[in-house]
Amino acid sequence: MALKPFAFAALVLAMSSAGAAALSPVEQKIVAEVKAHSEQGLQLLERSVNINSGTMNHEGVREVGKVFREQFDQLGFTTRWIDMPPAVKRAGHLLATREGKQGKRLLLIGHLDTVFEKDSPVQLWKRDGARVRGQGVNDMKGGDVIIVEALRALQRVGALDNTTITVMFSGDEESAGDPIEISRADMVAAAKRSDIALAFEATVRDKSGKDTGTIGRRASSSWDLEVKGKQGHSSGIFTESAGYGAVYEAARIVDGFRQQVIEPDLTFSPGLILGGTDVSLEASGTKGQAAGKGNVIARTATVHGDLRYLSYEQRDRAHAKMKAIVAQNLPGTSASISFHESYPPMSPTAGNLAILKTYSQASSDAGLGEIPPLPPGQRGAGVQFVAPLLDSLDGLGATGNGSHSPDEDLEIASIERATIRTAILLYRLTR
């Protein structure tokens, strides 16, 4: 169940007042191993970034998968590549597992693909002092490296023995294969065998400059509005016989959404609208054509939009309000709306916040400061298909700027910082 605002505030306060504890001797060794091999981690990042792995570059995605599969093989994991059916049109996923009987069963989530396709002019790798720019450096090959290096530090001190850890690196996070039921089936199955999920999308800093943890992410869904009017001479518009036309009705509905479907962390955006005598929308849903004349009342209109929410209860309230607005038609018009789900919500829960508390304590004990929760409404959809199934924490990855842009970069020191936090967190969760 998602946290109510007052409960969320109380738990945040409790987290911030938790007393610090010193690192155990084993944890001190883990930190030392991370620091001693930071350069190795950076080399692994450079190697992976220098392979283009745009979602639709299937060969490149598989090649990056091979790079990371080698690492998990060295760590004693059982690894396999999961191919997708040809109809899904995606490269597949890397799965690495180990079985034990000690502590929590953990699912660690990353992704191999980037938004930069094979013909992208963005440089692969360019180091500039304490930062590095390149394709997917912080979204999220940096996070993938943090997973590997944290596990490697645990292995070196013998702390991986008898643990149950599953690692899933998807090959299509930036553009999930369709149908979702197939492209995410293996991730969901892994979640059902686990107790806690940790995802390594980039760490986001708050306004004060502190690294944060992501205990909630909004769902990604869409809606399609279809509106009909009576075609006729424009001189008759607004009359009882001619009505208001499809464009006015579409405008009334969309503005009704703006005025009436408002609550915190809920957004809805009409991204494409076409209206006139005739309209046609391409199968992709991103392009279309409209035809009409100024002296002809619009016969049809279509609107394609986005809807993001934090919980299914919030979604249901929004759907009900939107349907009610759609039903209040202007004279001479009719309208219908349909909704389409994509990414589920990662609702902020007490369980998610409890994991963050453990993560924050690990960070504090290592001298890296507390980790406050990022306000859930500030982060969009991501690797959250497992969130409805188990307690989860995201945003454990690297720190950088310009994700998805030619300026995407990464703060090199954030790799070591996040690896230390992650390694201690994994150690404590698996004791």
UniProtKB/TrEMBL annotation:
<feature type="domain" description="Peptidase M20 dimerisation">
    <location>
        <begin position="215"/>
        <end position="331"/>
    </location>
</feature>
<dbReference type="InterPro" id="IPR050072">
    <property type="entry name" value="Peptidase_M20A"/>
</dbReference>
<dbReference type="Pfam" id="PF01546">
    <property type="entry name" value="Peptidase_M20"/>
</dbReference>
<keyword id="KW-0732">Signal</keyword>
<keyword id="KW-0121">Carboxypeptidase</keyword>
<dbReference type="InterPro" id="IPR011650">
    <property type="entry name" value="Peptidase_M20_dimer"/>
</dbReference>
<dbReference type="InterPro" id="IPR002933">
    <property type="entry name" value="Peptidase_M20"/>
</dbReference>
<keyword id="KW-0862">Zinc</keyword>
<feature type="signal peptide">
    <location>
        <begin position="1"/>
        <end position="20"/>
    </location>
</feature>
<protein>
    <submittedName>
        <fullName>Glutamate carboxypeptidase</fullName>
        <ecNumber>3.4.17.11</ecNumber>
    </submittedName>
</protein>
<keyword id="KW-0378">Hydrolase</keyword>
<dbReference type="GO" id="GO:0004180">
    <property type="term" value="F:carboxypeptidase activity"/>
</dbReference>
<keyword id="KW-0645">Protease</keyword>
<dbReference type="Pfam" id="PF07687">
    <property type="entry name" value="M20_dimer"/>
</dbReference>
<dbReference type="InterPro" id="IPR001261">
    <property type="entry name" value="ArgE/DapE_CS"/>
</dbReference>
